[in-house]
Amino acid sequence: MILTEAHEALRTVIRNVPADGWDLPTPCAEWNVTQVLQHAAGDQIGYAAFITGGPMPEENPFAPSGKLADAPEEVAERAMKASADAWATVSPDAQEVPVPVPPNTMTYTLGIGACALDAAVHAWDIAKATGQPSPLTPAMARELLSIAEQHIEPLRTYGVYAAVLDRAEGDDDVAVLLRYLGRDPHWTA
Asked: Which CATH code of 1.20.120.640, 1.20.120.450, 3.40.50.720, 2.40.50.200 fits the domain covering 2-140?
């Protein structure tokens, strides 16, 4: 399942951030690694809250403070567990699942895919910032691109995603996904 893969990518990347890596710059130009983690965790909690009616993130995911109350691994695990548990309550046949992104309802397949896309792309952001290998596989990237193409465009107007970057000769599936999300696959600090 795509959400499980995306969560494992985020989990692995978080686990491998070096102790001095939490303040490093990321492809998300205004945020460091800690802030991207806060954003990713907040988004996962947001999906869970919309599905279950439970609490929203304590901090605005779009204005992360850069200060964690708990260890990074705990922050990530708590958020991913809330998200996975919430999605486990939704029927795969559901046509209108409440989600925290416009239009605020999606089919199960699109909604869980959007949630996975969020976790996976932020796993890539953190990996890239901390010198880790990309956690995105070609198969995962192909599946996530299909999801992204169905829901990203309206979010660009809110500044959630940057403009699409032109494809380059030699782009693989991962690079195509990243460029669609407005990220340079060859980003460096």
From this structure: 1.20.120.450
